[in-house]
Amino acid sequence: MFKRKSNAAEAASTAPATYGMMAEFNGTDEIIAAAESVRAAGYTLVEAYTHIPVHGLDDALGHKPTRLPWLVLAGGITGATGLFGFMTWVNLVDYPMNIGGRPLFSWPAFVPITFEGMVLFSALAAVFGLILVCGFPMPYHPVFNAPGFERASVNGFFLCIEAKDPQYNAANASSLLTKLGATAVHEFSE
Amino acid sequence: MQTSQPLKPPVVESYDELLGPGETYSSVTARISDIVLYPLLKTPWGWIGGFIAAGLLLMLYLYSLATLFTVGIGIWGINIPIAWGFDIINFVWWIGIGHAGTLISAVLLLFRQDWRTSINRAAEAMTIFAVACAGIYPLIHTGRPWLDYWFLPYPSTMGMWPQFRSPLEWDVFAISTYATVSVLFWFIGLIPDLATLRDRSQHPIPKIFYGLLSLGWRGAAKHWQRYEKASLILAGLSTPLVLSVHSIISFDFAVAQLPGWHVTVFPPYFVAGAVYCGFAMVIVLMIPIRHWFGLHSLITLRHFDVMSKVMLASGLIVTYGYFGEIFYSWYSGSIYEYFLIVNRIAGPWAWSYWALILFNVLIPQVLWFKRYRTNLPVLFFVSLCINVGMWFERWVIIVLSLTRDFLPTSWGVYTPTFYDWATYIGSFGLFFILFFLFIRLLPMVAIFEVRDLVHKTAHKAHDNEDHGHAGA
Question: Which distant-in-sequence residues (6+ apart) come within 8 Å of A86 by Cβ?
Answer without folding.
Answer: B153
